[in-house]
Amino acid sequence: MAWHLRRLRVARGFSQEALAVDAGVDRTYVSGIERGSFNPTVEVLERLATALGCDVAELFAIPQADDEVPAPLRPGRKKA
């Protein structure tokens, strides 16, 4: 689940902070989920999926052999 959250976030161009704001959670919580340190509740998963514009089931899809590890986004805040 953590891998897919990061993959979807990066593919949509969200920073952890932007996703956290849109989902109504703390940025460190998003980071912790992506690292596998935190286990989100169903409610948080629904909010993250809504913010990403996907279905919760996409967060639990089995990775395919040809799936690439998402490249990291540039650090820091995006200019408004």
Please work out how many helical segments DSSP would assign.
4
The rough form would be described as: globular
Work out the strand percent. under 5%
Overall pLDDT metric: 86
SSE string? HHHH
The helicity comes to: 40-55%
Radius of gyration: 12 Å
Computed structural class: mainly alpha
Please mark out the parts with pLDDT under 50 across 5 or more consecutive residues, or reply none.
Answer: none
Number of strands: 0
Terminal residue distance: 30 Å
Biggest β-sheet description? none
Lay out the secondary structure.
Blueprint: H1 2-11, H2 16-23, H3 27-35, H4 42-52
Helix pairs in contact: 2-3, 2-4
Q: Describe it for me?
A:
- This protein is mainly alpha-helical.
- 48% of the residues lie in helices and 0% in strands.
- Helix 2 packs across helix 3 (27-35).
- The relative contact order is 0.23.
Give a quick rundown of the structure:
The protein has four helices and no strands. The radius of gyration is 12 Å and the shape is globular.
Defining key terms:
80 residues; 0% strand; mainly alpha; globular
